[in-house]
Specification:
The protein is of the alpha+beta class and 155 residues long. 42% of the residues lie in helices and 22% in strands.
Length: 155
């Protein structure tokens, strides 16, 4: 059954990113699915995130302050076969999940790297878009590690 197999790949993707983000102040990923789309969101308290990763543009304190805000890492996926068939029932989705976006507080991952002057890394991050959940397993976790570890005050 392709859906179950690929869904377990999406679960492994979430677990591998949990292993990177949870120790860095994020809550475990929260996933949702609707109409052939999936989204996984990790949230960290914005003030704590900014203190840990001050070099990132998303760490700039807004004029209204940090009160009650969180910083999100979001991965968007689409079931390409389901989308092509324009099906509406997730239970009938094929499970061929493709990455359509990786964002940190609304900033695409590749643009964050480009803004940090890391053009080769930005290209690797940009290549995630359109890749399968399975293919992104090997590259997304190291990219997130590089982003976060390179943005700590010790750098």
């Amino acid at each position: 059954m392709p859906q179950r197999e690929e869904s377990s790949t999406v679960a492994r993707l979430q677990e591998s990113i949990d292993a990177v983000l949870i120790p860095r102040g994020f809550a475990p990923g929260s996933a949702g699915a609707s109409n052939g789309r999936r989204q996984i969101i990790w949230c960290a308290a914005a003030d704590a995130f900014a203190a840990r990763f001050p070099a990132l543009p998303v760490s700039q304190e807004p004029p209204e302050g940090w009160a009650g805000m969180c910083t999100d890492v979001v991965i968007d996926l689409v079931d390409v076969v389901d989308e092509a068939a324009d099906a509406e029932d997730d239970e009938d989705a094929s499970g061929d999940w493709r990455v359509t976006g990786v964002n940190v507080e609304g900033y695409p991952l590749d643009r964050l790297f480009a803004g940090l002057g890391l053009s080769a890394t930005a290209e690797r991050a940009g290549a995630l878009i359109g890749s399968s959940a399975n293919d992104s397993l090997a590259s997304l976790t190291p990219l997130l590690l590089e982003l976060l570890e390179g943005s700590t005050p010790q750098r």
